[in-house]
Design goal:
Distance between the termini: 8 Å
Oligomer: single chain
Number of strands: 6
Number of helices: 5
Shape: globular
Strand content: 5-15%
Structural class: alpha+beta
Strand order of the largest sheet: 1-2-3
Largest sheet: 3 strands, antiparallel
Order of helices and strands: HEEEEEEHHHH
Helix content: 25-40%
Number of domains: 2
Length: 140
């Protein structure tokens, strides 16, 4: 994900998920899976193969409406969306300050309750946006 590194991902530096699926479909066949994932991935199968292929298409297909992910970074921040810095919780500082478990649970509950509003739905692709950190600094 080119968060903070958009200049590295020009039009010819990556392949859209649709194009990649078409290439796989032409060579081996590819169908949508009857298995439903529990996150933002689109799930596919190659006929006769064991397992599934999952595509999380951040750069070419918006999946914000079905994203149920949070990220706890090594810096102690709990992030509800990688593309929007709103609503982050500084767990490390809170825990070191002795926050009560009940208070921490309430902060996380509130974050989860408005996660769908935080998701960065207005974007055209993952290369558009202004980010204060790169993906490697976020923890990816």
């Amino acid at each position: 994900m080119p968060i903070g590194n958009g200049q590295l991902f020009g039009d010819h530096s990556w392949i859209s998920s649709a194009d990649l699926r078409d290439r796989i479909r032409q060579r081996w066949g590819l169908t949508e899976s009857q298995i439903c994932g529990n996150g933002p991935a689109d799930v596919f199968q190659i006929p006769g193969a064991k397992g599934t292929l999952r595509f999380i298409s951040q750069m070419s297909e918006c999946f914000c409406d079905r994203c149920n992910r949070l990220r706890l970074g090594a810096d102690g921040w709990l992030r509800p969306c990688l593309l929007n810095e709103t609503g982050q919780i500084d767990l490390k500082t809170s825990l070191r300050a002795g926050i009560r478990t009940v208070q921490l649970q309430e902060q996380v509950r509130q974050l989860l309750n408005f996660k769908c509003e935080i998701n960065f739905k207005q974007r055209d692709s993952g290369t558009v946006g202004s980010y204060t950190r790169t993906m490697s600094q976020i923890g990816g």
